[in-house]
Amino acid sequence: MLLSRQLITQKNLKFFFLFLIFIFIFSLTSGPFLPDLIVSFSALFSVIILKKQLIREFLKFNIIFYLISFYFFIVLNSIFSEFFLVSLKSSLPYFRFIIFIFAASYIIHKYELHDYIFYVFFSLYLILLFDSILQVKTGYNLFNMKLYSDRVSSFFGDEYILGSFISKSYGILLLSLFSSKIKYKNILYIFVSLISLILIIFSNERAALLIFSIIFLLSIFLLPNKIKFYFILIMITFTVLIFYLNKSSYERIINLTYNQLTENKTLNIFSFRHQLHYITAIEIFKENKIKGAGIKSFRYLCKRDIFSKKIDKRIEEKKKVFAEYDGFVRVLNSDADGYDKYYAIESYYPIDSHLQKQYLNKYHYFSLKKIVGERVNKGDHVWTFYEFKNGCNTHPHNFYIQFLSELGLLGFLCLIITYFFIMIKTSNFFKKNNQISVNNYLILSIYLAILFPFVPSGNFFNNYLSIQMFLPLCFLKLWKFR
Question: Rounded to whole angstroms, what are the CA distances from 211 to 57, 176, 186, 248, 449?
């Protein structure tokens, strides 16, 4: 009787976990609230249910010890930050992700859910593909969300993160597929890769395409040698075909990337705008070299004059406007607040020219070099303008630059050493005496792509992004079942 009750309980528990995983995977397309709620609930639930096992097993693995050390570092760093309440709000609850991966690892391996996870994720991909094609063809998706730009967003609405989601979950599908007992893995691998490529190109997210490409190129070594070349050829053909059929994708991913890299007739790091973020972040780092300014401090400090001086200089150097012909300077109205340096400009051109409305109250940075009404000759520097006033944003748009400004040298070294360790471990997979499992190789490949230094990135401590970044670790075998 007791054994029967235990079996019923185990069966009910497994059904509950299956339901929770299904809801969790689909909730990833709804925004940060539901996935974070499930992560928090799972962490709390696992502490209550698996308390004894957690205490016994928790510190047996280097990865857990490393993550706990990092956790205490960011909490301590937050305490000494100028914006300690803001920083602590992000760092203190960060521990839930560590508990979550430990609990998820227990559930996935105890109940052997790799097949199930793959099928649920694959179903979501098929729905996203259908929904995205519908949005491209009709301008609306299944939930009547309108296509407002050339960037398909599907269920994500006005959050243009479809490509980002696919690039970070693509590795999860491969992990669950190659760890499963599913037949025809190679064929499914090809289907998953093609669907991912189509969705990312539809989304027009360039960083996502780069991350996907790294994971794809590393994962293709898991295929038999005789089909590797043909599949790469298929992927290239599909890419060219999609670009040919969808001109907006080619325009943004290829032409816009080239234009931003060569903007102002110089080679830029990603774009001129990204460089302003990086310069600002480095200036903040110079004032807080060892410990950084604290998590999420960039958004507050970037506005200060002490950190924006170099931005002013950079804009003045790169965003000059020169007179197109002889004439007079014309400014139709000045800034409502009366600033000498910044103007709300309708147009600049000689008095006898046609008014050019592309300058209509659009630019936050404007410095006049010639007096209004002054005669100018063709080629004279008349003003400098730029869409943004400084290098501000919510974060610097690169993990490594963010760690420099917010966590200082200590945090930066932690991240860069981690990345080199991942590189070394990944390369060991190709040695003759390879002892790395396919599962661990794929996990390493995912982080090699996500943490790639030379790609724009989101806020490392954003809750939604953190969930996506921790998910691959859920497939580590952190438990020993007897």
Answer: 33, 19, 21, 21, 5
What is the spatial distance between Cα 23 and Cα 42, in angstroms, rounded to a whole number? Answer: 13
Q: Are 221 and 438 in contact, with CB atoms under 8 Å apart? A: no
Which helix (H) or strand (E) segment is 42 a member of? helix 33-49
DSSP code of residue 383: E
For 168, how many CA atoms within 13 A lie in the half-sphere containing its CB?
24
Per-residue pLDDT for the chain (482 aa), expressed as one digit of tens each? 444 445 447 677 888 889 999 999 999 999 899 999 999 988 887 777 766 666 666 667 788 889 999 999 999 999 999 999 999 999 999 999 998 998 898 889 888 999 999 999 999 999 999 999 999 889 899 988 888 777 899 999 888 999 999 999 999 999 999 999 999 999 999 999 999 999 999 999 999 999 999 999 999 999 988 888 889 999 999 999 988 888 888 888 999 889 888 888 888 889 999 999 999 999 999 999 999 999 999 999 999 989 888 898 888 888 888 877 777 776 554 444 443 333 333 344 444 343 344 444 456 777 778 776 777 788 888 888 788 888 999 999 999 999 999 999 999 999 999 999 999 999 999 987 888 899 999 999 999 999 999 999 999 999 999 999 999 999 998 776 55
Distance CA 29, CA 319 (A): 39
The two three-digit tokens of residue 429, written as one number:
């997979």
Q: How many residues does the chain have?
A: 482
What is d(CA 264, CA 381) in angstroms, rounded to the nearest whole number? Answer: 15
Amino acid letter at 326? D
| H-state helical runs in 204-330 | 206-219, 225-245, 247-250, 257-261, 272-287, 298-301, 305-318
Which whole-number Å values give the CA distances from 239 to 2, 32, 176, 250, 363, in the listed order? 59, 31, 25, 10, 37
Q: Show the DSSP H helices in 288-437 as ranges.
A: 298-301, 305-318, 399-428
The CA distance from 182 to 205, in Å, is 31
